[in-house]
Amino acid sequence: MADKKEDTGDMSYVFGIISIVLAFFTPLAGLIFGIIGNVLGKKQNTPLAKKGKKLSTIGIVIGVIVLIITIVVSLLYNENLSTGFPVQ
Asked: Do residues 60 and 19 make contact, with C-beta atoms less than 8 angstroms apart?
């Protein structure tokens, strides 16, 4: 019977993959899943847990980059819209 420590390596790997995928569509969810995967990857020192930790770190980095780009683009787009409409 598998103990809980073996499951954390598998879970870290799965959360790492999910964090990368979600980082492109919803960066905040990618960050959350990446942090969870990173925490689970630190609990065990197996090759799968190390891969999961790397994937989670990649998901966190991509999530931060996409979140910053989204904020900058939305601020620029909002600024352009606010100057284009006449004031009543």
From this structure: yes
Q: Quick one: 34 exposed, middle or buried, by C-beta within 10 A (0-12, 13-18, 19+)?
A: buried
Residue 75 burial (C-beta neighbours within 10 Å; 0-12, 13-18, 19+): exposed
Digit-coded pLDDT (tens) for 62-74: 999 999 999 998 8
Each residue's pLDDT, cut to its tens digit, for the chain (88 residues) gives 455 545 788 899 999 999 999 999 999 999 999 999 999 988 888 888 899 999 999 999 999 999 999 999 888 877 666 665 555 5
Alpha-carbon span 82 to 64, nearest angstrom: 27
- Residue where the block lists tokens 């990618």: 30
Q: Which residues contact 82 (CB under 8 A, 6 or more apart)?
A: none
